[in-house]
Amino acid sequence: MTQQRGSGFVALLTAVNCFFAFPSAAAMDIPLEVEQLPTITAQSPGAVIALPSEESFAVMCEAKGNPEPEFRWTKNGQEFDPSLDPLLRKEENSGTFVIPNNGNLTEYQGTYRCFAFNKLGTAVSQEIGFMVPKIPKFPKEGFDPFEVEEGQPFILKCDPPKGIPPLQIYWMTMYLQHIEQDDRVSMGLNGDLYFSHVEEKDSRRDYCCFAAFPKIRTIVQKSAMSVVVTTRKSESPDGANSILQRKPSLLTPPGVRSEAVLVKGEDLRLECIAEGIPTPKVEWEKMGHGRPEKFRLENHGKVLVVPGDEQDVGGKYLCKAKNPLGEVVHYFTVTVEEPPEFLVEPQSQLSMIGADVVIKCSVSGSPQPITTWSVNGVPLQETLSANRKIFDDTIIIQNGQPSDSAVYQCEASNKHGKILTNANIMIMNLYPIILTSDGQEYSAVEDQGVMMHCKVFSSPPSTIFWSKDDSSELVTGPRFTVHDNGSLEIHTIEKGDTGQYTCLAKNLEGTSAVDAMLYVKDPTKIVAPPQDQSILIGTDAQLSCLVEFDESFRGDFELLWQKDDEEISPNNTEHSRYFLEEGVLHIVNVSHRDQGEYRCVARTPVDSDVASARLIVLDVPDAPQSVVLSERKNRSVKLRWIPGEDHNSSITEFVIEFEENKWQPGSWRDLQRVPGNHNSAVLDLHGHVGYRFRVYAVNAVGAGPPSKPTERYLTPPAAPDKNPENIKIEGHLPHEMDINWEPLSPIEHNGPGLEYKVSYRRQDVEDEWKEHTVKRHSFVVRNTPTFVPYEIKIQAKNHQGWGPEPKMVTGYSGEDFPSAAPDDVAVEVMNSSVVKVTWKQVPKDKLHGHLGGYRVNWWRMRSLLHSKQSQGERHTAAFPGSRSHGTVSGLVPFSEYSLIVMSFNGRGNGPGSKAVNFKTPEGVPEKIPVFRVADVQKRSISLAWTPPLEPNGILTGYLLEYQLINDTEEAGPLQTVNISKPDTTRWHLRDLEPLSKYRFQLRSCTSTGCGSIVNLESTTLETTSALASTVGLSITSPTSPPSSPKSRVTKPTRSTIGLASVHTGISSQGWFIGLMSAIALLTLVVLIACFVNRNKGGKYSVKEKEDLHPDVESQGINDDTFCEYSDNDEKPLKGSQHSLSGGLKAEDSGDSLVDYGDDDAQFNEDGSFIGEYAAKKEKRASAEIKATAQTPA
């Protein structure tokens, strides 16, 4: 709101040393709230063309002013009132009227002018022409064929009808095919078709001229014309065709000189079309300036385009048409003219009363324009004013008064056009009117600038002052600028700038003021901008943008994303690949078009921040292009290619593949790899092959697609380039030598008829080479000495010749079994389960082959707890290489063993050494197999168990530990009971807590130490039960197979014990007693049967003798099981009946490496074998059967 200020504040302003000096005139910018002259704001263009297709035509005239202007029109200089014509539609509050297309438009054709007036004056519009075009037509006429003698010049006239420009002319056939134009045939500026000389091919019946008028959207066609070219006959006797050459002459323009006018702003076209044989060439020149290089030539050089916007284009020009017989010249005099143009255009002015007003209208043009002045649309000479003076192009109003306010018109015209302008001259005095609203609020951020507006209108102009928070001090300083339009600009905003600001405007007529409020906000800042990324095509990309901004803008804050300066619209469609989530832009299934620069724009109403990142899409390279062969030779060719796009990952290599059509047609194989910075390679080829090649590129992402294959390239046959490789000499039998080699691949044959020449001789004696030619890739030399060295060569040949000289390799003939056993076998006991075996190596002459290593066979003879011998499972361990010791592990403690040592080679095992017996010391016992609750009472529990299956020594007793647990986090103290009698298998614990849960742990012990713990839990009863003696849980189920040393532990619960106490007295039932008796009897029968079977297999003297002296002839060794060890659980126990163990094949050797093969064999650092053995199974199975047969105490 505008308000008057007190006298104190006015006095303060008066004291300021920047008093305003009022100018006599100021630029016109009057708000509509102030009374003012009319101003025309819009009008129709200079010409309104009434096209037949339009429904109506608006003749527009809009104006503003206060009071609101009224309108009147003139037509062709006469008053015209549209409201009097019922067919015209007048726009309300406007000067515009609409002419309907009712078919009778001719009466409205003419030149219109609009006058907008109010009580202060009148504004005048430019002239508006309303044109009703007639449809141009060619006259209907028929044409006789034009006969023209061959070689003569000819002009086909077009004579287009008159119409609204521009006019465009085309020469075409009846089928709308353009007539071909060149140096000889071309169209002139007037539309005629010129022939420098006609030829026989110019004969046709359908030369058509088309005239197009784009403004009225009309094309008309002239009737087709026929041209017949007659052949010129020579006067020579043979009557041959003869066309005489002639020098040039001009078809247009006529004469030697002509004049042309260039209107400034419009291009001028000068034309020279000549005739002659040969066809003349046209050259252009500006006299005194040489060839006009900057000017444009058209129509095959026959038209010179003089630009209308260049300087100094007037003057003399010449065109020169010439051929070898002569030349012709035409001169043009070009005069430059221009339509009227304001040099100084009259300006609207606002002046205070008493000031002089100067109105200047200066015009240029050629011819010199005629300038006329009008006041409020009335010629100046028809109005009188005592204080108005006219000086040439200037009007001066002296001591201007409000009554001198008027609209002055300056109009200038010549033959090229007419211009008019209005100048509103307002003379008035007015106190300041502040147009900016009072109480406006501005927001700005720290360190930026803000502009607070104070738009003022007054006459004379006002002085503007700004203050803050009703302070008497003005806002001044280097950070503050008051602009001429009254706005206050604050540079580099600070927090303390927040507050209320006052704008005060003052002139001689009074003062006015408005208030504005400034709020300083926290700046918007991107604290975590998006980062440049390189991402694989087809994956998902994420660009994050974390922003901090002033909390007051939460409802107005925007986070936008742009890609390459175009805004992205995330989540806009169901199938959009972009979506925005908590400031993160997700791009789904990235493709090549997603590559580019992404910009995050964080915006509030007062500021913004921008951060950008580049997304690079990685992909495999595109296929190479233009793969061609060059430098073709018999055995090589050069391959060139153009690399494809690498998709932002440099190409590391190119892979050249080939396909041949003889051996593997359709199969592409790698031929050569070249670095990624190469685009060619010389390929070495095999003979007698039809090749095709292709290339693919590889980068860090992967291999790209291959190129298109080349044409097929056939190489001639040639001798082999190489001989066989990987020659193997083996001896499967003592008196034979098998020679095998890797054959040449089919493509390496280089031609038909491939064969191999095998040459061999003994190395250790002087011997002649023996040669054999074979087609296969193996050869057997028979009747050789055992294991002697040979020299062997293999050479390839085909029909074209021999391959290169072969390399010589050395091999040995067939091996035989070693004939001697190792001596001085000794055993050193390391601990209860590991021994070290040493021996003396077999002499080389007794090996009869390549030494494979040494094999140790051992077996358990008996446990030291018993005097009875029972040979156990045989075990073996192989120690490869030439060595004299090895370590055997996995032995059963407190046992007696026997072992032998033998050597082996590729043929098999040698004889075994003398058996060496040794004993292992005591160890800790195995885990107790059965541990159960035998009886449960209110305050006591009886426990029962069976001894360990393998005590590994002499039992010294048991260690029993127990504690109260009761399903709580804190357990009771651990109680320990040392049971020193080893034959104890039951223990009764007293003074326990009723209805309490206990955990029991039991271990068996020898003098070496105690074995593994077995656990059991049980709960005492609430009351003593007669059934309690039958309630107990064992870690071994009575029905478990005896071969399972680890059985499932079943824990008792309170519910099972309580249930048992409910059924007291079940043990007295007859059926229960009978059932238990039957179970006991059946168990006894099973035990007797097992005992009998065991005793029957106890003697094994024959088998033991076989083990000590193995049949070496039947011990064939297989390369696949060399140095391997077996402990097969599926083998039967030695000494068992055939019916129980399954059939042991007669040909199976007791120490066969096949039987002992084990893929999991391991060796210690010194090469000794480590394994798990099954020799204890027989003993363990027997013990478990006995344990299961026991009845709970």
Low-confidence stretches: 1-27, 1026-1069, 1096-1193
Percent of residues in β-strands: 35-45%
Largest sheet: 6 strands, mixed
Mean pLDDT: 83
Name the shape in a single word.
elongated
- Given the structure, what is the number of helices? 6
Task: Calculate the terminal CA-CA distance, rounded to whole Å.
Answer: 113 Å
What is the structural class? mainly beta
Helix content: under 10%
Strand order of the largest sheet: 1-30-38-37-33-34
Rg result: 60 Å
DSSP strand tally: 88
Subcellular location: Cell membrane
Keywords: Cell adhesion, Disulfide bond, Immunoglobulin domain, Membrane, Repeat, Signal, Transmembrane, Transmembrane helix
Organism: Oryzias sinensis
Protein name: Cell adhesion molecule L1-like b
Structure description:
The strands form 25 sheets. Strands 1-30-38-37-33-34 form a six-stranded mixed sheet, with no helix packed on it. Strands 3, 6, 7, 10, 11 and 12 form a six-stranded mixed sheet that branches. Strands 13, 15, 18, 19 and 20 form a five-stranded mixed sheet that branches. It contains six helices and 88 strands.
